[in-house]
Amino acid sequence: MKSKKIIGLFLIVITFCFSFVTVFSYVTTDWGYHSKHCGIDTSTLNDHYRPAANQAIQDWNSSGIQPNAFVFQDTSSNNKMYTVYCDCASGGMYDVLSKNENLSTNKTTRFRIRINSKFVVWSTHYNIKKSVFSHEIGHARALGDIPTGTNTLMGNMRDRLVIFAPTADDVAGVKSKY
Ligand SMILES: [Zn+2]
Question: Ligand 1: distance of its center to the CA of 120 in Å?
């Protein structure tokens, strides 16, 4: 009897462990950019921020989201990145500037991404800047915030020095929407 109980407990523990491997925590929204091809103009940023933004775009493209979705620099795009000084709690902001309500999802037709120079000052560590830009690009690819999340790009409680590129969870979320 005792050994059956132990085997039963063992199976529960195994099942519990595997549930962590397969269950994702991503959240999606209807506010991703409408096209799977998402150009962003980073020329609107100054030299303190543009390299991190460009690297964030490259990180998304090499994350495994292709061929479902693409992100690329495009100086002719209406989707632009800016710095802003905001006396608010945000490190970065994703704003929908126009949308097409006739689309069932991915309704955004134009957006802007802003990095808050109050918190992410010019001398902030490169990886923290990259983490903020990459997170906001995640919103443009239909991902929502995970308020208590620590181990994905969309987790608001992540250590931005450590999590600064899309994780498998973030990639799975994008692929579920494109
Ligand atoms: Zn967010």
Answer: 15
Measured in whole angstroms, the distance separating CA 109 from the mean position of its chain's CA atoms is: 18
pTM for this prediction: 0.88
For residue 37 the two structure tokens come to 């091809």
Burial 102-124 (b: 16+ CB within 10 A, else e): eeeebbbbebbbbbbbebbeeeb
Per DSSP (E only), the strands in 68-177 are 70-73, 80-84, 92-99, 108-116
Coil, helix or strand for 3?
A: helix
- Inter-CA distances, 2 with 9, 14, 142, 160, Å: 11, 18, 50, 47
The string of pLDDT tens digits covering residues 9-25 is: 555 554 555 555 568 99
Ligand 1 centroid from CA 151, angstroms: 14
Domains and CATH numbers, the chain: 30-175 (3.40.390.10)
Q: Distance from the CA of 87 to the center of ligand 1, in angstroms?
A: 17
Contacting residues for 119 by C-beta, under 8 A, at least 6 apart: 90, 91
Enter the DSSP assignment of 72.
Answer: E
- Residue 151: exposed, middle, or buried by beta-carbon count in 10 A (0-12, 13-18, 19+)? middle
Q: Is the model more confident about 57 or about 22?
A: 57
